[in-house]
Amino acid sequence: MRKTVVLAGMAALLATAIAAAAVKPETAIHYRQSVYTMIGWNFVPMVDMIKNKTPWDSATFAKHADRLAFLAPQLLEGFPEGSDKGAETEAKPEIWKNMDDFKSKMSDLVRETKALADVARAGDEAKTREQFRKTAGACKSCHDKYRSEE
Amino acid sequence: MRKTVVLAGMAALLATAIAAAAVKPETAIHYRQSVYTMIGWNFVPMVDMIKNKTPWDSATFAKHADRLAFLAPQLLEGFPEGSDKGAETEAKPEIWKNMDDFKSKMSDLVRETKALADVARAGDEAKTREQFRKTAGACKSCHDKYRSEE
Lengths: 150, 150
Description:
Two copies of one chain form a homodimer. Chain A is mostly helical. Chain A is built from six helices and no strands. In chain A, helix 5 packs antiparallel against helix 6 (125-146). The longest helix of chain A is centred in the N-terminal third of the chain and has 26 residues, at 25-50. The N and C termini of chain A lie far apart (56 Å). The A-B interface holds A 27, 30-31, 33-35, 37-38, 41, 67, 70, 74 and B 27, 30-31, 33-35, 37-38, 41, 67, 70, 74.
């Protein structure tokens, strides 16, 4: 029994090691940058509405909010161990030294984008604006600590 | 009445022109490449299961299929008029000369990825494998005609 548990544990470790080895650092970096690019693409028209550069359009805002909520949970897998280098990246090495804190900030983003999608779909402009502020705060909180910007 | 219609038509044209002008070609190119990168990131583990390189895992397959179905409808907006150049791109200029055909191929992809997500969620491996073949066919059909590969 004990032997089985140990063997199962070793198999699980091996599987994790293989899975981690399967993705090259530069592939992970390229992937996570793509998720951020898609987030940015959807963020811009939302900011334009928030800043009254374009007229408020609940349906369009909700569409973009829905995409953010779908994209946010896909970021974390782009930060595997060892992907602090391998290609040009703005991700600070502090991420991998504080992975629990980084994961916690990612969870904040997932929660806030989910809340934004929900409130935007309901169509209340004032509440959507308020929740957008919180969502942008979740972005900023992580960028301030873990993103290197020249 | 006629004057109103003409003015409304001109306003619509102007709005379209402004919207198109708002996105730089290089931004659209970078965006669409990011969507394809995310599609590829999710495609690889599916192909590994299809080719029996990794064990079949219905839940994981369904997760990736769900993402493809969410990403596919976001591709087309990355091909605005004028984005045939502006940055390195594999998109052939034929796309903008045959936009109706290109849109039709994109619709095929959206339909097949949606069908794949539905069948994968239902958990039938044989049907999922069959629908994956159709989905990959929709990718290939468009790449063969509109993607320049060295």
